[in-house]
Amino acid sequence: MAAVEALRRRSVPLLFLSAASLFCIALSVTVGSVAISASDLWAVLSGGGEPLHQTLIMELRLPRSLAAFATGGLLAVAGALMQVLLRNPLADPYVLGLSGGAAVAALLSMLSGLPPFIVSIAAFGGALGSAVLVFGLSHGRGSWTTTRLLLTGVVVSSGWGAVITFMLAVGPTEQLPGMLYWLMGDLAYARSPWPALIILALTSIILLPLGRSLNVLARGPMQAAALGVAVRPLEWSIYGSASLLTASAVTTAGSIGFIGLVVPHMLRLVLGNDQRLILPAAALTGGALLVLADTLARTIIAPEQLPAGVITALLGVPTFLYLLYRSR
């Protein structure tokens, strides 16, 4: 009976968030320079509809909305994992330099004219290399602490920012606008959303059985080890998963901030600290939030478009300050 009640407590919020995510995607698809009604949307999804509506939905708006959902979900899950690892609600892939390493590697690959598949592999390598660098430097000659890891991540992230600035300064002039928009988080040129969606789904499925271990690890490594958790392999698994998620998000939409920081923190205030619920809820909430942000970005000053990262920053800063104030 207790297990059934626990499953019900977890399923109700997830069902609500799933419905909210579908609503956000439908809203994003129907809103734009050409308004599409719900009946027209259903006609297109059913295989009919006008040719103009088919082109707008199936070739432009729906792939972009799905890419935004996948990117937001990837960043939110990565942020939730990093916050569990460091037991700090201020941790996210950007603070720890994962996104900076992925961005540097991806930009170098783009400047070299490499194909998109190689760019994705390079971004993952950059994120993983940055994770190893931060973890190794923070370890030093003794065991690492969360404070040392956060400080090392901030310094490494600043270093990646300097490298990116140097690349922008010496890069070809004709490529600068695209690079700048990509660094600000632009979904206008997002490629196929399916690789990011597949990675998000597979990672979520793989991480769900680790929910209990993550709950124990959140209480501290010593207590986790005392309860039989293999702490070091689990920590490196978290780092590798966060690196893969961050690299996939960066290669899909560039650098988008505050999703991985605000969403897990907000969900823990509302839903508690059970990772079996937080991780799938973060994927749904982060995806829905970025879909709404991208919808605002392409409609608020239409026909001009803003990078989605600008909207997430404008929404994320006051939201996070309010959450900090509320959780005094």
From TrEMBL:
Keywords: Cell membrane, Membrane, Transmembrane, Transmembrane helix, Transport. The keyword Protease does not apply. It is found in: Cell membrane. The keyword Transmembrane helix applies. InterPro entries: ABC_BtuC-like, ABC_transptr_permease_BtuC. It holds the Pfam family FecCD. CDD domains: TM_ABC_iron-siderophores_like (cd06550). GO terms for cellular component: plasma membrane. The chain crosses the membrane at residues 12-45, 65-86, 93-111, 117-137, 149-172, 192-210, 245-265, 277-300, 306-325. One of its GO terms (molecular function) is transmembrane transporter activity. Belongs to the binding-protein-dependent transport system permease family. FecCD subfamily. This is Iron complex transport system permease protein. It comes from Litorivivens lipolytica.
